Amino acid sequence: MVMKATIYARYSSDKQSETSLDDQLRVCRTRADREGATVEFERCDAAISGSTAVGSRPAGNAMLADALAGRFDLLLVEGLDRLARDQVEQEQIVRRLEHRGIRIIGVSDGYDSRHSGRKIMRGVRGLINDLYLDDLRSKTHRGQAGQVERGYIAGGKSYGYDIVKADGGSTYQINENQARWVVWIFEQYAAGNSVQRIAHELNNQGVPSPRDSTWAVSAIYGSPVKGSGILNNSMYVGQYVWNRSQWIKDPDTGRRQRTERPREEWQTASLPELRIIDDELWRRVRERIDAGRDEHGRKRQVRPATTLFGGMMLCPRCGGAVVAINAERYGCAAAKDRGPSVCKGFSILRDLVEKRLISIIRAELLSPVAAAEFEKAFEEMLKENTGSTEDVAQTTKRIAQLTAEIGRVVDAITMIGVSEALAEKLKSLENDRSSLQRRLALKAASEAARNPNVTSIFNEILMNLTAALRENPLMARKILGDIFGSIQLELREDNQVWAKMATAQLLKQVAGPSISVVAGAGFEPTTFGL
Description:
Residues 158-295 form the Recombinase domain. By secondary structure, the protein is of the alpha/beta class.
């Protein structure tokens, strides 16, 4: 039987080009001819690092999908480093493929999964590739540090500047239009205006943010400790700071995460020609920012305000979160943070909202009458989801039939090998059987959850909520979130505010985690005015 082959090629952006893919494909095609294999797929990833997880690359992910579907039985790569340079991931990928009977050949490095010494070669190659990545990171970092010492920049774009490529490296050049707004932001803050008001005005005037979007408080204020945000960017007084952070790969997710470096590792270069803000304006801004902070620039510990419904309610205008905008009122977070050009917003008294919502919860949603209605609807829902005894018998019989069919397909694969049709058939049968098995599991869980004492459960929730409201606001907030999730607010005639509270979350409290049902089935949201 003719082997079906897939070629996987990849080049990273460092000192390589698209011609590298052509070269890799050429040597792999030649090897496929030698092996008497037919090349079914050619999967190519361009300008993607070998440290990027295979499943996170477009072509790499497609290749893995082909492998799981049994669409090829020979994988050709120029070398194992084209699959992955990370030693652990390379080992995992190779094992997954070889477990499925796929032969792997590294044309240039000599790897062949049929050779008895493949594990030793794979281990050595994996270690070499891993060390290459470490060495590359070290050399890149060292080169960037040297560029900073020579007066060039080694980071990304900074608001107020354009990046200009030069023979020796990259430099900043002041962007006069953006620089004008940098000065304006500093002047407004030094004059006592709030960051929210500054963001509102920028958005109102249609000034693009650093990310070409709307301005938010975080873009302006950032973090004084990390040196982020417009108001903390020392570049505006001619001091370029590099090496504040680093990117580290999370071994669980394969994603890169930014971590901050200690201040003693920061590297500073004086670039007075790039100054935008004078020392006096910088000093005034720093005095205001540093007020209330310790010697390390961190805010002195202040007990955070606790609100019962902040973040749970949704704005009636934009659908964003409603939070405490001051000590007395709830309002739209987007309107507070970004201004009326993003959301016109609204506000409502905290005391009014909290008393009204708690009153409704106690008197209507957790009342004995509500418990009786909920219990009736819950029982009806269980009947719809579990089906009759006859349905269960038919489902069990069908599962047995599917299991027998799966066995016959597996026997066929054992005798004649995997074909695309057999692989698809096997996958379809297994999916059908899994679906029916889940249905039976739901039936069993539903039987276990049948006839719960809803009144008792409601009384317990109400008792816990009452105690928490009196003694532990944080716990009360958690209980409310568990019961209702989000609360949608609506604006009606004469600007009256109405709240819509879905009771579907109560299913989890009544049925527990053993039963999975369509959220909200049979349970209408409760709507009332505030």
